[in-house]
Design brief:
16 helices; 6% strand; globular; four-stranded antiparallel β-sheet; 389 residues; two-stranded parallel sheet; alpha+beta
């Protein structure tokens, strides 16, 4: 997904879930920050690098693809953007390496989604925003995996987009992929993707790189034939999926806000969203590169307030000027703690399932030794808070 949904859409969802304008802005900022919190960003802040929730293009270009490098990539992308659906699913084909990668395929409403939302309960607005980013991406990124894999993530040549014309008819338009810096050309159905490389573990085969931004556009409806599905046709209906994602975000945020006691998968706040349904569905199908203006206008209609545009440097000075003992109480400090907890939880679940692709992990529990240097900041913060108490 893109900023239109992660920032403006999340603000709308938080507002409908009962949060104030200021709270909704903080949640929306945190949701969008997941796509920007790279090691480069954290290094400039002198913050824990293990809290990275994404990797920038130049970081990916220099990423190692040995065992340790691949584990690092998987910890980031599987934890925050391609949440695995079923780490124990039966796979009746292929060797162990293939089965391990197959079990990292992202899909909606899995056990790890329930864990993700529940983990954010009581952890603040930053954790709420991070959780709903992960939730939203399960809808956009379903059927792709957050680990490099040619056999899992490659797109066949027979990709067809279903384009609805003005008269309501649907044309099946072949999708043309190219490796270019020119961007996508919606008028001709040309989309930019990562280069074709036959190496199983190249970063070019990470996530939906081979599909370009097609999964990130709310209007996109397309069919393709993935190898992992034995070349049976898969239909991705983004307008429908994105609407479900929005309704599920409202439901999840209502839980985090305290409006109901539990969060369960396969539940959606459809009645809450119903007054806005026609309007949302009308712009989700707009065939354009982003719909930020449409979401922004909806936000104003819901709250009567103006949502400021996202600015990555908004909270940096607060973090930089805080003393070492105060950094975890800043906006970015709270986001970093939430990122470390989410990364630790997902990595541990993958490791505990017997899958080595995300490396070794010991589950973090508040106030308990984690055994992983990546999460020592959580231990020190828990000790600090206990000391204050």
């Amino acid at each position: 997904m893109q900023r239109d949904f992660h920032y403006y859409g999340t603000y709308c969802a938080a507002s409908l879930a009962g949060y104030s304008h200021e709270e909704s802005m903080a949640i929306a900022y945190s949701a969008e920050l997941v796509d920007h919190c790279s090691r480069s960003f954290l290094a400039a802040l002198k913050a824990p690098l293990s809290a990275a929730t994404t990797q920038l293009a130049f970081e990916m270009a220099n990423a190692r693809t040995d065992i340790l490098g691949l584990q690092d990539i998987t910890r980031i992308w599987a934890s925050f953007h391609f949440l695995p659906y079923d780490l124990n699913r039966e796979v009746g084909k292929g060797g162990r390496r293939y089965r391990n990668k197959y079990r990292l395929i992202c899909d909606t409403n899995g056990p790890l989604l329930r864990e993700t939302v529940r983990l954010a309960k009581g952890k603040g607005l930053q954790a709420a925003g991070l959780a709903v980013h992960v939730l939203a991406d399960t809808w956009a990124h379903r059927y792709f995996a957050g680990t490099p894999s040619l056999v899992i993530n490659n797109m066949s040549r027979n990709v067809v987009e279903l384009v609805t014309r003005e008269d309501g008819s649907i044309d099946e338009q072949p999708v043309k992929f190219r490796n270019s810096l020119s961007g996508d050309d919606l008028s001709t159905g040309i989309f930019t993707c990562t280069p074709t490389m036959n190496s199983e573990n190249t970063v070019m085969n990470l996530g939906h790189g081979r599909a370009g931004h097609l999964p990130d556009y709310s209007f996109a409806r397309y069919k393709y034939l993935p190898a992992w599905a034995e070349y049976h046709e898969i239909l991705k209906d983004n307008p429908s999926d994105y609407y479900k994602a929005f309704c599920q975000m409202v439901y999840a945020l209502s839980f985090l806000h305290g409006s109901h006691e539990s969060f369960e998968t396969e539940r959606y706040a459809t009645s809450t969203v119903a007054p806005w349904e026609d309007r949302i569905r009308s712009f989700l199908v707009k065939r354009q590169l982003d719909i930020m203006d449409e979401w922004h206008a909806l936000a104003t209609s819901i709250t009567g307030r103006t949502l400021e545009d996202f600015s990555l440097d908004k909270y940096q000075q607060e973090y930089l000027c805080a003393s070492p003992d105060e950094k975890n109480d800043t906006f970015l400090g709270k986001f970093i703690l939430a990122a470390l907890e989410q990364k630790g939880m997902v990595t541990n679940k993958i490791y505990s399932s017997g899958n080595p692709l995300a490396g070794r992990s010991i589950e973090y529990r508040e106030g308990a030794f984690a055994g992983m240097k990546d999460y020592l900041v959580l231990i020190s913060d828990a000790a600090r808070r206990i000391g204050r108490g």
